[in-house]
Amino acid sequence: MKTKYMNPYLAGVLLGLVLLMAFFFSGRGLGASGAVKSVVVAAVDVVAPEHTANSGYYSKYVGEGKSPMKAWLVFEMIGVLVGGFLSGAFSGRLKWKVEHFPGITANRRLIFAGMGGILFGFGSQLGRGCTSGSALTGMASLSVAGFVSMMVIFGTAFALAFFLRKNWI
Amino acid sequence: MGPLVPQEIIGADWNLFIAFAIGIGFGFVLEQAGFSSSRKLAGMFYGYDTVVLKVFFTGAITAMLGLLFFSLFGWIDLNLIYVNPTFLGSAIVGGVIMGAGFIIGGFCPGTSVCAAAIGKIDAMIFIGGIFLGIFFFAEGYPLLKDFYMSGSMGPLKVSDVFGISGGVLALIVIITAIVMFKLGELAEKRWPREEY
Q1: Do the interacting molecules here have an ipTM over 0.95?
Q2: B91: closest chain A residue by CA
């Protein structure tokens, strides 16, 4: 069928080449949730610096000479914002919008988006990376963690799809 | 030769600029593929649009083959490439929570940022959720630490587990992907979709 989007196989090859360039230049793959983690650490460090210094989790990222925002993933995700915006501008898709299945209200969509985000954020920390950082990058480097993340994330979403069908179809 | 920054062929000060440039490519490709639409992403799980499957696997395979060939040509030293370490228990439980987040929220972290960049408000709320979820994990870390650190297997590769070469593993992944692509095409014929 005719579509306004790029051929998915061509997009996949381009995505793979971007990932390959990350490996070739920086010796590491892509990621996303790690950048949000940096923002969380930086924000908590501003509000409660004593808490970050004493916490087993935050203290890894703050302190003398360490700056959580000066991280590879933070700059990469700023690039994603720019690249996504450019693509949207190029293809005429820039628009303020709550996108949802017509069978549900915009408010319901927003509530579920928020809940999904909380789960994804929490899970990405426990699982050491999200779909980009653990699954996609991990698979390209043949890592067991990458294949496990991919299978468990997609497997769980498939298993729960029936219960959430009223939100989507 | 590669990777260039870890071997100091390119100075470390360039690394963040490279990250930014690579991010632009990443965001542009995701948006062009349609990953800025939660309805398109969720289509994967109802069979009406399998773009996620096609882009994700084609991407993983392209980069996988790229690394193997670059290594073969002597262009990259695979020992200097970061391989994410495996902690089986937390990877599985974290993956289950992420999978639930995916079907409930309609995005993953990378795609939500891409969607927010073109004005999707649901994606911005999703990002706010990620922020909270990470904050909850960080605050709960003392309770979670034992489980988080358990079952460490190091930077283990699938090819080593099964005692096969990276090339044979890549071939198996490619054959599996082609079968799944065919199934995806069949599913799209079976369940009609709109264009988002």
Answers
A1: yes
A2: A127
